[in-house]
Amino acid sequence: MTNEECRQLKTVDIIVPCYNEGKNIDLFFDEVQRVAADIEGYRFHYIFVDDGSMDSTLEKIKEIAAGVNAGSGNHGGVDRGKNGGAAASSDAELSSRASEVIECNDDDLVADSSDAGSTAGMLNTALPVKYISFSRNFGKEAAMYAGLEAAVRNGSDYAIIIDADLQHPPHLIKEMIRTMEDTECDSCAARRVSRKGEPRIRSVFARAFYKIMNRYSDIEILDGAVDFRLMNKKMVKAIVSMPESQRFSKGIFAWVGFDTRWIEFENVMRIRGESKWSVWGLLRYAIAGFIDFAASPLKAIGVFGGITTIGAAIYLIIEILKTLILGKDVPGYASIVCLILFFGGLITAVLSIMGEYIGRMYMETKHRPIYIEKESNIDENQRVSDK
Ligand code: UDP
Ligand code: MG
Fold this sequence. Notes:
It is a single chain. The protein is an alpha/beta fold. It has 14 helices and nine strands. Strands 1, 2, 3, 4, 5, 6, 7, 8 and 9 form a nine-stranded mixed beta sheet that branches. Helix 3 (57-70) crosses helix 4 (91-100), helix 6 (140-154) crosses helix 9 and helix 8 (200-216) runs parallel beside helix 11. The longest helix has 33 residues, at 333-365. The two termini are 24 Å apart. Magnesium ion binds next to loops.
């Protein structure tokens, strides 16, 4: 493929948040390579984000980066080509397969790009497999943000977020790209239509969460929506421009707007490794997400406070009238204790709801970075070349 032909290709950054996915990385990469090789007219680059993994994740990513970036002396993006069907069984095989599908050479393109004002000046100068490794585990939200931020710096036409555990079927990437082309929408996202194989308690919580979220928050999130989505540059920039450090991406995707189309898929079970979510962790995440996009609990507190005040006033008037008309009544202490307990509980609940909001405000005012990078193969010059 000539440089000119390579320049015509649209660039897609594949963002992969990874936390302790050492067992999955090779399989994932091989699968996505196979899908990418079958998509014409696009160049694919990977941005692996190692979220402070404690297993071999980073080593695996580095091996892949070394294999692809140096594979057969060719440094190009993953472009369409012929690829075998069997899964890679060794790193050497993986690297050679990776380089097999590479036809475009980014280094050549960069050399040409000195030609100021030409289309070459707009080229993505990224290495095909890049990685960012965090200093500790900051969570998937931070990993997705780091990947999107790198995609903005790359100036790629599109970015895809996809899980490393193959629960987001890579073959849908092709369908997403076709949908974006056909409908000229800004984003194409995936949605699980079944929860087969998922722990029952998790499905129950999830369904309740979507119902409450859609009813009481400012945004609408489809039940089953996952973070697997393809977005154009404009949408990625909008997401990265949202500076909150406590992030809830499902809400952010909805909040930024843009025309989004949905692709449905059946739930896929994790083959290797374990989910990082506990029931308690998911519950915390759901509450935090709700609070991020809903002020309705604060309003509900006000309404409840108003109703109880009116109720108390009416009760007081009735008591005064009873005393004036029927003579002095001796109230039982049981009713007083009940009232004290009721209002004590109410005040505590009100304070804890307010505390959630105040706590989140407090954390935001610290302006802490969303993540801290330990190492990366993204070169500093490229980071500032915001194309
Ligand atoms: N992940 C991450 N940081 C975390 C937890 C998860 O980067 O702290 C990644 C993980 O490696 C995977 C994706 O996010 O690629 C989804 O995680 P997981 O499979 O545990 O979530 P589930 O599919 O069970 O919702
Ligand atoms: Mg998963």
